[in-house]
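Feature request, filed as a ticket because there's no other form

It would be nice if the structure record came with a short human-readable summary line next to the tokens. Right now we just get the raw output. Example of a typical job, pasted below so the devs can see what we mean:
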Amino acid sequence: MRSHRRRDFLKGLGASVGAGFLFTPFLDSIAEAAPGRKPKRLLLFCTMGTAPSIWKPTSVSGETPTFSESTSPLADVKQHVVLVDGLPSGNPGNNHGAPDALTGLGFSDPAKLISVDQFIADKLIAAGTKTQIPSLLLGAESTVNGGRSPYYRKDNLPGIASPTSAYSTLFGSAIPSNTSSDDLLRRRKSVLDHLKNEIKALEGNLGSEQKYKLELHIDSIRQIEERLSNTSSGQTGGCSVPTKPATDPANPLQANLLHMDLLVGAFACDITRVGAIQWGSDQAMNVDLQDIGLKGDEHGAMIHTGAPAHLDLIKLEKWLSQRFVDLINKLKAIPEADGSGTLFDNTLIAWCRDMGDSPNHNQNEMKFVLASGEGGYLKTAPGGRYIKSGERHERVLLSLCDAMGVTDFAGFGDPNLRSKSPLPGLSAS
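Raw output as currently delivered:
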């Protein structure tokens, strides 16, 4: 009976504390960027690899690209964009399902796998700033066809697939009617105190491993208490809660359009500083875009069909490029709470892929599209920039760390990488 009551109590805790608080220990508080640097957010836009022939600029003058058909929407924001190409991974023969893309490390030592979003979030937590979620991972069908996401913390981390669940996690803890914020804060703290007492009462009957797990849980409760104490009662600045999704669309691409709005809303309300959206898994993405006459699986029906022209893949890549532009424009439309420009002015966006050459299943030439706002991290140019480099792709991941004020790279990526530093030429400083 006691265990059933505890289960009921935990369900009640979810209703009282809020859905987002139950994702401990992962949803801990996160920190500001390093002292003296403008706080920045990181947004990862993750897709399957592409065909190099359709992605590369049709011509390059100096570093100024002429965008291909598949990347042509990027021309509308070219002053913010840097295309990076030609970077091999540490395991260039790896392909679908390999963790290299965001970890910089293959399967040789799974215990050390950590993706750049998780690594940055951990470093920011250590610096001490409090927000609700350290790394927000969203994406419909991120494990479709037995596939994986690019996010790792030893094991693979799938994103939240359901927009309605994501909304509840992010914005579902609104203050009930006829309840003040101070009353709600006292109620939540009381619930947490009761839960700690319940857990402590169990310790005497448990072995060392179970006691260790309980201690981790108690630590997560302490972190919740700190967040409650440091959370203001009202929202300010550009914080605007997105419209609650009525249902989860059956079409995964439509679901991800809702995820985009939720991610922007989470940035605007300072719920997270590190966010990611994934389009499909490394094995498949079910495409149904009637407005452009495109239907089928990205992997089987587009990447490995239609060579050399890849007409359907060009349509899909062009559609995805427009979604990348949409994210920029959504962030541009929201002012910072402190008056320091727009959300985009303080955000770095990175379009990352699991492979550089999907038709040939390899990571010989990994590709990134990076974007930042006025006065942002990137060295940009009015006509855009195209950089082709033979350096390891991990160095771009280290640039993402550097942009977020993380300069101690110990514990991330390949320990044998000779040039353990950001990619030269990306940073404006």
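Something like this underneath would help us a lot:
The chain has two domains: 1-27+174-239, 31-162+248-403.
The chain has eleven helices and 13 strands.
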